[in-house]
Design a protein that fits this description.
The complex is a heterodimer of chains A (about 375) and B (about 270).
Chain A: E1 5-16, E2 19-30, E3 34-38, H1 45-53, E4 60-65, E5 68-69, H2 75-78, E6 81-83, H3 95-105, H4 110-123, H5 139-151, E7 157-161, H6 169-186, E8 189-194, H7 197-203, E9 206-211, E10 214-219, H8 221-226, H9 231-236, E11 241-244, E12 246-251, E13 254-259, E14 262-267, E15 276-280, E16 286-288, E17 297-307, E18 312-319, E19 324-330, E20 343-348, E21 354-357
Helix pairs in contact in A: 3-4, 3-5, 4-5
Chain B: H1 2-11, H2 13-35, H3 42-47, H4 51-84, H5 87-98, H6 105-116, H7 121-128, H8 142-166, H9 170-178, H10 183-194, H11 196-211, H12 215-221, H13 228-237, H14 242-273
Helix pairs in contact in B: 2-14, 4-5, 4-8, 4-11, 6-8, 6-12, 8-11, 8-12, 9-10, 11-14, 13-14
Classes of the chains: A alpha+beta (about 375), B mainly alpha (about 270).
The structure holds adenosine-5'-triphosphate (ATP) and magnesium ion (MG).
Organism (chain B): Pararhizobium mangrovi
InterPro entries (chain B): MetI-like, MetI-like_sf
Keywords (chain B): Cell membrane, Membrane, Transmembrane, Transmembrane helix, Transport
């Protein structure tokens, strides 16, 4: 990734009465990247996007575009591309007129406008539908009109607020691919909002995770998924097992402690952690009938439930201390005991677990 | 089956009542128009040839169109504020729009008389300020009639407009702003076209109501700018020319019915499209 910071948000806070919709948010947006804002409902994603677009003025903080302060610049002067949740197409205009609107606003010539609109409609695959009204289109087609309208004037940045949340699963996946390919073709900067973690991980070059108006972590999908900064991020990005450690000691980048009398080791950032737990993704754990002899972390547990899920099935287990674990197992894997009540060993490589604090904020 | 009888038994008095108090008298009026003073369509020929009747019809049309324009424009502005302004201002407008419904036509017309009269508040005020030497003729003419009727009709026009603005997705306006459109451009190419059904509805309602206005133009026109309803009244009670009164009534009735049909048709189409 290059280092050309294009938009820079510094200590942005937005208050609505006593509610802090955004709380000291700082974020650099790099030119050409696909940045996703991910977080639960009410975490401030839309508010942040609206601050970027200029529809909401921050209570505190500074927003810079290429080093220039644009905190108080009105939206119509920023002219960032925007795809709203629910699309916000003009219902009284045809598809072509919708896409033409931003070009008309700046008074581009007629011939140029016609060329740009028809090129754009071809890019999003709507060339045959240019004379229809939005109400005569399917959800996915409306979505594409909204994208075309946001991209046609080549805005400095395109902001997309949960553009796919209204679509069914198949169409959603198809549109994810299309948005990514549009991003490559347009070679612009995209800021994309979603509360779907799978979507965020598969589409983005970087993910910023929001909770309660604060950014919890920013990083590549792999970084935030495999090395979450705190318990909230770890749990928000997917199922995770948290194994509490007793008498934990940190030694360089490794932490050692005990659980039910067994010694467990995990990677750590090096800082001291209050009430440490080892966090392990279900897909990193494996099952054995006998105690493993290699130097993996291992704990003993009883099978309590098995949920078949096609390619991967989910196994629920309970340790002696009452801690419940969740495991992914390949359905084709025949050595797996699936009878509830059976006692098994669960193990995972030391480097796949990471130490977190159980006290970290949690939704 | 039995329940049906019940329903009809309960509902029947209403249509019966309406038939007796509206339909029967109207048929009587239709009869006058073709029998007084003699059998034939002479009265209808007079409606469209008699210069006096024609001048009343033209004046009515002119006044009503002016009233419709003024009412719709004012109602649009009020509705916009009612829907989009801050809550305290919204409440103020709501109050201002709904209060007139509780005040009688007569009171409102006399209220305007007090304001617009030669020695009324406006004229004495302007004279005291030294802005005019002679009183302005603000009443007993078409101007006074238009003012009074507009004031009466604005609240009726506000309701369909407010409803069309309430149903508008405001993100559409935000989107237009975000693409760089000025406030005026947003109004002209997004807000106004999108609220067009409300505008048409408000204008038609105003026009339909205004055609039959009687008390307000009678008081504020002061017998000088007589509209069609007052003219019919005069033909019946003063000149006792029931034939021409009946013919004008029928023409007015047909015009209003046509407008109502148009209104229903447009609102239906609107429902089908939207
Ligand atoms: N105009 C407003 N007035 C008052 N509070 C607001 C306003 N807009 C947002 N908030 C509050 O700010 C917080 C953040 O809202 P925001 O819309 O940014 O959340 P979000 O992350 O986009 O959620 P979602 O996923 O549900 O869209 C919420 O608690 C919300 O109630
Ligand atoms: Mg939102």
């Amino acid at each position: 990734m290059n280092d050309r910071t294009f938009l820079k948000a510094r200590n942005i806070t937005k208050r609505y009465g006593k509610v802090r919709a955004l709380d000291d948010v700082s974020l650099d947006i790099v030119e050409g990247e696909f940045l996703t804002l991910l977080g639960p409902s009410g975490s401030g994603k839309t508010t942040f996007l609206m601050c970027l677009a200029g529809f909401v003025e921050p209570s505190e903080g500074v927003l810079e575009q290429n080093g220039r302060d644009i905190t108080h610049m009105p939206a119509e002067d920023r002219r960032f591309g925007m795809v709203f949740q629910g699309y916000a197409l003009f219902p009284h205009m045809t598809v072509a007129r919708n896409v033409d609107f931003p070009l008309r606003v700046v008074g581009r010539g007629k011939a140029e406008r016609e060329r740009l609109v028809s090129d754009m409609l071809r890019t999003v695959g709507l060339e045959g539908l240019s004379q229809r009204r939005p109400s005569e289109l399917s959800g996915g087609q409306q979505q594409r009109v909204a994208l075309a309208r946001a991209l046609v004037y080549e805005p400095a940045v395109t902001l997309l607020d949960e553009p796919l949340s209204a679509l069914d699963k198949n169409l959603r996946e198809q549109m994810q691919d299309e948005i990514r390919s549009l991003h490559r073709k347009a070679s612009g900067t995209f800021v994309f909002v979603t509360h779907d973690q799978t979507e965020a991980l598969s589409m983005s070059s970087r993910v910023a995770i929001f909770n309660r108006g604060r950014i919890q972590q920013i990083g590549t999908p792999q970084e935030v998924y495999e090395k979450p900064a705190n318990r909230f991020v770890a749990q928000f990005l997917g199922r995770i097992n948290l194994v509490p450690l007793d008498k934990a000691e940190t030694n360089g980048s490794w932490m050692t402690g005990s659980f039910e009398g067994r010694t467990l080791v995990s990677s750590t950032g090096g800082e001291t952690i209050e009430e440490p737990v080892i966090a392990v993704r279900p897909e990193h754990m494996t099952l054995d009938r006998r105690e493993p002899t290699n130097d993996m972390n291992a704990v003993k547990a009883t099978v309590i439930d098995y949920a078949y899920g096609g390619a991967h099935s989910v196994l629920q287990l309970r340790c002696q201390s009452g801690l419940e674990l969740s495991l992914d197992v390949g359905s084709a894997d025949t050595n797996v005991p699936v009878t509830p009540g059976e006692t098994v060993w669960v193990s995972w490589p030391k480097e796949t677990g990471f130490a977190l604090s159980a006290k970290d904020q949690q939704q | 089956m039995k329940r049906h009888v019940w329903y009809w038994g309960l509902i029947a008095p209403l249509p019966l009542f309406l038939a007796i108090v509206y339909l029967v008298p109207f048929l009587g009026v239709v009869r006058w128009s073709v029998t007084e003073p003699q059998l034939g369509f002479g009265n209808y020929v007079r409606v469209f040839t008699d210069p006096l009747v024609l001048s009343v019809l033209w004046r009515t049309l002119r006044v009503c169109v002016l009233v419709t324009l003024a009412t719709t424009i004012m109602a649009y502005a009020l509705s916009y504020i009612w829907v989009f302004a801050s809550p305290p201002i919204q409440r103020l407008v709501e109050f201002g729009v709904l209060i007139p419904f509780w005040i009688s036509t007569l009171t409102r017309a006399f209220g305007w008389l007090v304001l617009l009269y030669n020695r009324g508040l406006i004229n004495t005020g302007l004279r005291d300020l030294g802005l005019i030497d002679f009183p302005l003729t603000l009443v007993r003419n078409e101007f006074g009639v238009v003012v009074g009727m507009t004031h009466f009709l604005v609240p009726f026009a506000v309701l369909p407009l407010v409803s069309s603005m309430r149903h508008l997705d405001t993100r559409v306006l935000t989107a237009a702003r975000g693409m760089g459109a000025s406030r005026f451009h947003v109004f002209r190419s997004v807000l106004f076209p999108m609220t067009m059904p409300g505008v048409v509805g408000a204008a038609l309602i105003t026009l339909i109501f205004s055609l039959g206005f009687f008390i307000t133009p009678a008081i504020l026109g002061g017998g000088r700018s007589v509209l069609v309803a007052e003219f019919i009244y005069v033909q019946i009670f003063q000149t006792v020319d029931w034939g021409i009164a009946g013919a004008i009534s029928v023409v007015l009735m047909v015009a209003v019915a046509a407008l109502i049909a148009l209104f229903i048709r447009l609102t239906r189409v609107e429902q089908m499209v939207g």
